[in-house]
């Protein structure tokens, strides 16, 4: 169940960015492929493989968007916060509930509530997941 919620959050995050990327691509003179940078922790090779499989499905469903995934080892949160502070944050990234709330307070996340809620009603999630996701 935890893995399914995790993969759902990854897929929704990518899908929520799709409209913005499509608009950017349409307004671009050179109209090439849009590349999203995506960083996550590497808990295990199996998790990384599952994420890569999800990205492949996303890319197949969204031609013109390429996702460059970089799993990170070591102190992931410190590296993520440093990239944000240095104005070089990835487009999409994993965030644990403790870091997520810090990022919300700093105003560095795109609010995808409406896009998320219209496709995945919060009532469909177990109460503990709703509590973690809601700010």
Describe this structure as you would to a colleague.
This protein has helices spanning 2-27, 45-61, 76-85, 97-106, 113-119, 127-133, and strands at residues 34-41, 65-72, 92-93. Helix 1 (2-27) packs parallel to helix 2 (45-61). With 135 residues, the chain is an alpha/beta fold. Strands 2-1-3 form a 3-stranded parallel β-sheet. The two termini are 22 Å apart.
Topology:
Elements: H1 2-27, E1 34-41, H2 45-61, E2 65-72, H3 76-85, E3 92-93, H4 97-106, H5 113-119, H6 127-133
**End-to-end Cα distance:** 22 Å
SS-based class: alpha/beta
Alpha carbon gyration radius: 15 Å
The sequence of SSEs as H and E is: HEHEHEHHH
Question: What fraction of the residues are assigned to beta strands by DSSP?
Answer: 5-15%
Low-confidence stretches: 1-12, 14-29
Multimerization state: single chain
- Main sheet record: 3 strands, parallel
Continuous helix count: 6
Major sheet: arrangement of strands: 2-1-3
The backbone outline, from C-alpha atoms, is globular
Give the overall average pLDDT. 80
Percent range of helical residues: 55-70%
Give a count of the beta strands, DSSP E runs of length 2 or more.
Answer: 3
Comma- or semicolon-separated keywords:
135 residues; alpha/beta; three-stranded parallel beta sheet; 57% helix; globular; disordered N terminus
Concise structural overview:
The chain is α/β, with parallel strands linked by helices. It contains six helices and three strands.
């Amino acid at each position: 169940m935890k893995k399914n919620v995790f993969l759902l959050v990854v897929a929704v995050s990518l899908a929520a960015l799709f409209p913005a990327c499509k608009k950017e691509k349409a307004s671009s003179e050179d109209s090439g492929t849009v590349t999203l940078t995506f960083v996550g922790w590497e808990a295990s090779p199996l998790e990384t493989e599952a994420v890569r499989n999800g990205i492949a499905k996303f890319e197949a469903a969204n031609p013109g968007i390429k996702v460059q995934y970089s799993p990170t080892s070591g102190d992931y949160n410190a590296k993520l916060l440093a990239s944000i502070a240095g104005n070089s944050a990835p487009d999409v990234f994993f965030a644990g509930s403790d870091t997520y709330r810090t990022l919300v307070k700093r105003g560095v996340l795109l609010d995808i509530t409406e896009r998320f809620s219209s496709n995945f009603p919060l009532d469909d999630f177990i109460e503990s997941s709703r509590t973690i996701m809601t700010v």
